[in-house]
## 1
Amino acid sequence: MKTQKAIKDRRSIKYFDADHQMTAEEIDELLSLAALSPTAFNVQHWRFVVVDDPELRKAIRAHSWDQAQVTDASLLLVLCADLKAWEKQPERYWAKADKEVSEFMLPAIKAYYSTKTRVQRDEAMRSCGIAAQTIMLAAKAMGYDSCPMDGFDFNRVAQLIRLPQDHIISMFITVGKATKKPWPRPGQLPLEELVIKNQFNPRSPKPQSEIKTEPMAEVSDEVVTEVKPKAKPKAKPKVKAKD
Ligand SMILES: Cc1cc2nc3c(=O)[nH]c(=O)nc-3n(C[C@H](O)[C@H](O)[C@H](O)COP(=O)(O)O)c2cc1C
């Protein structure tokens, strides 16, 4: 299948044939292709959790707005990333490179990530997003349908899959045989709105005058391992509209 056709034919499928099973070889092929996706500094920090335990799938579905894909797809992947992969034997990522290349890369990796929790998280999400699309297009080429999903309780799912403290969940990818056609594409924005030539319009809302760098107080790489009952929401304080 041509890449262009796979891109055009891929749609987010809501209903899968619960009886269809992918072979171990197919799953292996799909994940091997996913593992060829690019990552900054080749840190390959994605971790693909394959959930094939039906009871675990049911438990995850209960925290995923009861979405049928979670139990009915042939494959449920929880795309995670190891936020600290950059510091875990990074020489592995450049093992086959020329000596001078790896000698340059290893200190560069450390300088780029150490102390920067926001960068670690942003990179993880970027890499998982790219891997997700690789998986969905490869699935299409292999005769399968898919659905990316983030409609679930991230903390509950983290607990259910026993996510390590220094990992993060990006999204689910479900793969299988569609039983219902997707609705027609609901509406694509025109390219004129999406594509900016060189610079944003000077008359468009206030450009950023200052690029925010570390530390970002609101960003945390902490994974909540204990889900506490939600406190009653407090009345929102009244705030004046921003300038
Ligand atoms: C990050 C992300 C999360 C999504 N979460 C869900 C989800 O939880 N359930 C669902 O049915 N579709 C989900 N979708 C699919 C979108 O609804 C879908 O991509 C969008 O409507 C465009 O349709 P298309 O993918 O068929 O082109 C998600 C898509 C993305 C990219």
## 2
Amino acid sequence: MREPNDLSAFWMPFSNNRGFKQAPRLLAAAEGMHYTSSDGRSILDATAGLWCVNAGHCRTQIVEAIRETAARFDFGPTFQLGHPLAFELASKLGMIMPEGLDRIFFTNSGSESVDTALKIALAYQRARGQGSRTRFIGRERGYHGVGFGGISVGGIVGNRRQYGTMLGGVDHLRHTHDLARNAFSRGQPAHGAELAEDIERLVALHGADTIAAVIVEPVAGSTGVLVPPVGYLERVRELCKKHDILLIFDEVITAFGRVGKATASERFGVTPDIITMAKGLTNAAVPMGAVAAGRHVYDTVVENAPEGIELFHGYTYSGHPLAAAAGLATLAIYEEERLFEKAITLEAYWADAVHAMKDLPHVIDCRNIGLVAGIEMEARAGAPTKRAMEAFHRAFDSGLLIRVTGDIIALSPPLILEKTHIDEMFGRLADILKAID
Ligand SMILES: Cc1ncc(COP(=O)(O)O)c(C=O)c1O
């Protein structure tokens, strides 16, 4: 006999299904900086859900925009048709992107944004008569979602090994994580810009005329907050330009104020050819992603194409009215409350709190940028990830939501947080680190 509240039917993503279902931890509601668990406890959200609820939970303006739109205009196709909400959001989004990256393609997630960006890169190369450029260069420890394109350019073995040969013609740069030289860096680490020279190595190996694009996260999030070394992104940009290779920044977590500007590109002063986004775009209230392409990319693919459909790609829900309405309301909040600047105004206070964890048991690195922190713990001998998982469970049970990846604690709170929340987060975290063995 099935029970309506049976936990067995939902095959949970990126989860230890068996472990969870034996000891479920359920969220029931959310508001502002907090979740409420199903047993009625208030849980301070130190991760903005999954790096996505940048304006805090259940914002009235967003809820009302969704409600009003759902009642008036539930769905409208965007294949050979359109509706004003999608055009308006694209225009607004284009205005906050770096100069020139104002041609917007809508998707429904970060993974779809990545695969869309890769396809746009291939279409661009072909349209300009460089059809031999089909190769992609990703980076070790990169996370670009879970589509076949994304896992192929991504660099996380756990996400790849179950899935065969994936996309052909992909190579990887080395990652920039270097505890020997950079442990406990505040902000951008000093060492590692030279790792960008891997592009030269791969160009020498494969030939520039076979490479369509390089894709990197400006700050790698999912593998534990890897902040770009000083000068690294600049050098990546230079080398892509030198070899006429497109540069894609995957900004699914860094866009929308996470590092103190609309995009990490703006924060670091390095402009790619294509930016992928999702998460903070709608404050996660309705799934939506987007790709911002440079005018040169759009014009090459679209303006120079023969009459008819220019790019054979799109999703039924590209530019969905509810997502577009949520996106517009979200961008309005970011602007009204100047939330993008929040990560700059609070950055020093946040960094002090992060680096105060330095001498706690097990901690081998603390790193930060904007309102992001990575606290790396030494793995238990023979039991990697177990210590971090214990920290996660203890945190949840004590009323704090953190995120763990490997043996790294990653923090990325909603941008509405106040100093008192920072004190509370790190006070609790310190207690947890002292309590675990
Ligand atoms: C950099 C990056 N790219 C892509 C994705 C995939 O996004 P989604 O889970 O919405 O498909 C993520 C998700 O965390 C991400 O951090």
